[in-house]
Amino acid sequence: MVDLRVNLSGLWLDNPIIPASGAFGYGAEFAQLYDLDILGSFSFKGTTREPRFGNPTPRIAECDEGMLNAVGLQNPGIDAVLTEELPRIGRYFHKPVIANIGGFSIEEFRDCCAKIDTAEQVGLIEVNISCPNLHAGGLNFSATPQGAAAVTRAVRQVTKKPIYIKLSPNVTDIAAVARACEAEGADGISLINTLLGMRIDIRRRRPVLANETGGLSGPAIFPVALRMVWQVSQAVKIPVIGIGGIDSAEKVVEMMMAGASAVEIGAANLVDPYICPRIIRELPELLSGLGVERIRDLTGAAWKNKL
Amino acid sequence: MQRQGVYTIRENHPLAREIFRMVLMGDTEAITAPGQFVNIRVEGCYLRRPISVADWDGESITLIYKVVGQGTRRLSRMQPGEKLDLLVGLGNGYDLDCCGSAPVLLGGGVGAPPLFGLAKRLCRRGIIPTVLLGFGSAEEVFGEREFAALGCRVLIATADGSRGKKGFATDLLADLETGYDYFYTCGPEGMLRAVYDACGCDGQLSFEERMGCGFGACMGCSCRTKYGTKRICKDGPVLKKEEVVW
Question: What is the ipTM of this complex?
Answer without folding.
Answer: 0.92
